[in-house]
Records
---
Amino acid sequence: MNKYLLIGGAGFIGSAIAKELLLKGNEVSIFELPQSNLFRVKLIEDKINIYTGDLTQIDVIKDIIVKNKISIVLHLASSLIPSSAEHHYNVDLENIILPTIKLLTVFSELKVKLVFFSSGGAVYGKKNNGIFSENDVLMPISYYGQSKLIIEESIKFESRKSGLNFLILRPSNPYGIGQSLYGKQGLIATCIHNILTDQPIEIWGDGTVVRDYIYIDDFVDIVVNIINKAEENETVNIGSGKGYSVNQVLDIFKRLITKRNIDLKFLEGRSVDASAIILDVTKLKSILNYEFTTLENGIQKFLSHETDNSQL
C-alpha cells in the first residue's frame, strides 16, 4: 500500500485514478483549486482526504504531505487547453507553473516520488510522419504544450540538483465515461454531446487531423501499474500507438448511430493543431504487456453510458 496525494485530482482523469488507487488498497488525498468542481469524487469523499487551496500555498501542501505520510505525489493540475491564448498562459504561469517549480524542492526534501502528467501531444509539436517517441526533440506550438515543457525541464533540473525521484507521463487523448460532454476540448465527448443535442459538430480544418486516443479505463489501469514498474526518473508515452483522423472518428459514430442525423460544420484550421500526433509506445510495451480497447468499442461504451441505445 502507498499513500498518494493527487494535485488536481478531482477532474476527469484524476478522479478515475483516485478510484482505482482506492480499489487497489491505497490511501488517497486530493488537493484541488478552490474553484474546482468536486462532483466526480462525491461517491468516494468519505474514503479520501480532500483539501482545497492554491498551489502558491507551499507550506500548506508540505503539511498535507507530512501529516498524511504521502509517498507519491501525482501532479495533474493545469488551467490550459491546446487552444488557450497568451493571457490564459500568463495566468497559468502565475498560478500553476511557477508554484509547481517551487514545490519541486519540497518534494525532493520530503523524499516523495513525483508523477507528473505532461502532454503526449502538445509537448512535441510537429513532425513529418507524426509519430513521436520520448526521445524526440520537444518543440511545442501551443501555450499549453509550452507550459508542460517548462515543468518537465524544471523537474529534470531538480532531479539533477537534489535527487528528486520522478516519473513523467505523456498521455495521448484519454476519453470515456466520466468525461464532461460540455467541455471545450475532447473530440469524442464533443461529438456525443452535439449528436445527442442535435447540434452540428464543428470540425477545424478538413477532418484529416490525426490523433492517438486511449480509453479512460485503459489509461487508468496503465498509470496505476506503471507508477511502480517504470524505472526511476523516466519519461513514458501513454497512448494506444494508433492514429485516427477526425473523419475516421466520425465514420465510427456514423456506424454506431443510425437513428440520428450527424451534421458537420467545417471551420478554418487552427495553427495550434499539428496535422498528426501518434505516440510511439514501444517503451510502454516494454514495461507493460497491454491489450487496448479498440476505438470503436470505447466509443460504444461511452455512448451507451450517456444515453439509452434506443435513441441511437
Note: The CA atoms of residues 110 and 176 lie 35 Å apart.
---
Amino acid sequence: MKNIRIAFFGTAGLSKSVLEALYNEKYNISLVITKPDKIRGRGKKLLPTSVKQFALEHNIPVVALEKVNPDFIDLLKEYRIDISLVVAFGQILPAEVIDYPQYGSLNLHASLLPQLRGASPIQSAILFGLKRTGITLQKMKFKMDAGDILAQEEIAILENWGAEDLLKVVIETSPTFVIKKIPLYLEGKLTPIPQDDSKATYCYSLKKSDGLIDWNTDAVRIVRKILAFNTWPVCYTYLKGNILRLFKATVYSNLSKEIDMLKPGEIFDVDKKIGILVKVKGGAVAIQELQLQNKKRMNFIDFVNGYRNIRGIILGK
C-alpha cells in the first residue's frame, strides 16, 4: 500500500509535520503542492513555505500555486496520482481535482467535524470557549469540510490554553493519527460516516484587523480573543500611538469599587503575580505576555521593568 502515488497539499506547521511523517514511513509522495514563496520576517526575504522547503531538501517534485484550477488535473494525470492528501492548504479545490484520484482525496481537519467547518478551527475552538476539540480525517467532497468522516481523535482543551497550546498538541497528534488511518482506509477498513449538516458550526478566514481589541467589551470575551488569536492574527491595541501586541491574558476578579470610575482600556495597576491590570466593560483583565512595536515579545514583568509609569495610561490611543 505504501507504493500508491500520493499528491500532498499543504503549506506550513501542521502540514509539514504530516508530510515529514509520510516521508519517514516510506510512502510514495509523488507530488507536493503548496503556496508561492512570500516575503517574511524582519529581513523581508522571499522565503518558501516549510512544506516546499522540505520537498526540495528531499528531492520531491513540488509546485507552488496561488490557486489550484480545474486544469490542474493534467498534472495529477502526469504524475499518475492515486490519492490526494490535503492538510491545512487554505484553498477549496475544484471538484475535478478532488474526484480524480482512484482513492479520492482525503483531508485532515483540526476539529471534530461537523463542528467548526472552515478556515480557523484552532483559533475558533479557543474563541468559543470549547472544552474539547480534535482532528478529523474526512473524504473530501466539493463542499467545505462536509465530506464523510473516516476517523476522529478528541483533544481536551485545558484552562488558559491559547491557540499556540492547542496547535502544538494538534501538530504532535496528527502525524501518528494519519499514519495509522491511511492504511486502514486503503484496505477498506474505515467506514465513511456522512456528516449531520444540522449539527454543523462554522468558522471563517481571519484578517489582521480582526485582532484589534475593543476595551469596551467584557473580560471573558477579551481574554478568549487574546488567547485565540495568539498565533494569527495576534490581538493588538495602541500604547501612546505605538502598536502593542497581546499574546496572553486572564480575567482579573479581585476588584475594588473604584474600578467603575475608570475608563475602558485604562491601566490601573500591576499585580506582580498575575499581570498588567486593564479596565474593561464590567471588570478587568490582566495582560501577561505582550510586545511593543519594534520590540521583542516578553512577559509582563520584563515589560514593566523597561516601561515604567504605565498606570493611568489608556490603551487604544
Note: The domain at 208-306 is CATH 3.10.25.10 (Methionyl-tRNA Fmet Formyltransferase; Chain A, domain 2).
---
Amino acid sequence: MGGEGTYAADTGAFHYIAPSAVPDAVKKVAPATVGIIGKPLGSSSASDNRYNLAHGTGVIVQSDGLIITNAHVVKDMAQLIVVTADGKQYAGTTTHMDEESDLALVKIEAVGLQTAVFADSSELEVGETVVAIGTPISFALRNSVSVGVVSGMDRSLHSTYRLIQTDAAINPGNSGGALVNLKGEVVGINSLKLSAAGIDGLGFAIPSDTVMYVLQHFLAYGHVKHPGLGMDVEESWAAIVGLPTDEPLQIARIHPGTSAEAAGISEGDVLYSIGNQNVQSIVDLNEYLKQYLPGDKVTLTLQSGGDIVQKEITLVETSLN
C-alpha cells in the first residue's frame, strides 16, 4: 500500500499519509512558485561582474503578476529577473517592502498566472507534515522540494512577529518560497535557517496569517501601518531568555507628544494588559496590535505608583525595529 503514518498515543488515533500526498501538494503549489535573481548592490564588483548574482524564491498571489517574497531577498537587489515554473523570464520590480515582517512584493507584467492558495496558519499543528519549495544554493535548482514537520509554533527569534519552526530543509535561496501543508495550501513563507556547527534541521517561516496581514496593508495603504503605543517597553529576563513567564512588560520610555504622555503614563510603570489581553513579551504585543490601526483607541491596565489603573490611549504609527 505504501505511504506512512503517525500514531497519537493520547487519543489512540492513527493518521495515514497516502504515498501521493506530497507529490499532489507539490503539483498544486509549484506552478505558483517563482525564482528571483538579480544583482546585489553595494558590491564593488556588482556592476562589472555578470556572475555576481543573488537569488531567492517568491510565491504568486495575483494572476496579473504580483509576487510575495522576503524583504531581505530583494532589498538592495537590482535588475530583477523572475522565472516562472514553466521557464518564462520576466523583468521584476519591487513595489512594496516591509523589513519588520521581512516581506515584500515584486511585480511582473504577466496575465493568467496560477496563484497560491493560503491556509489559516492558526490551524497548523506541531508534528504536521509540511513541504518547503524554493531555490536552494543555485538558481539551477529552482522548485526544489524538501519535506519535514512543523517542529514548533509561536516561535520568536529576533523577529517582530511569531514564526513557524520546521525541520524541512530551508537553505540559502529558499527564502521567500512557500511552506505548504499536504493540501497544497501555503501555511507560511520560508524566511531563514540557523546555520552553525551542531545545528541541523532548524528552519523558520512567516505564518500565513502574518503574510495576509502584510499583503492587505500593502494593497490598501501602500505600506504596513504598524500601530504602536507611543512608548518603549522592556521584557522581563525570563521572557528574553524564552522561559515561560507571567511577568508583565515595563515602561522604559514615553515618546513625547503622544497620548501616552498626555495620559500621565510614566517610565517604570508596569503594563499588564491591552484591552482584555495580557502581554508578557514584545512579540505578544506586536501580534495583538495587528488587529488595530494607528489612530485606534485602546485601554491599558497598568501598575503606576503602586496602584492598578486603566488608561485610554490612541495608537500611533511606528517602526517596530
Note: Residues 227-317 form a domain with the Pdz3 Domain fold (CATH 2.30.42.10).
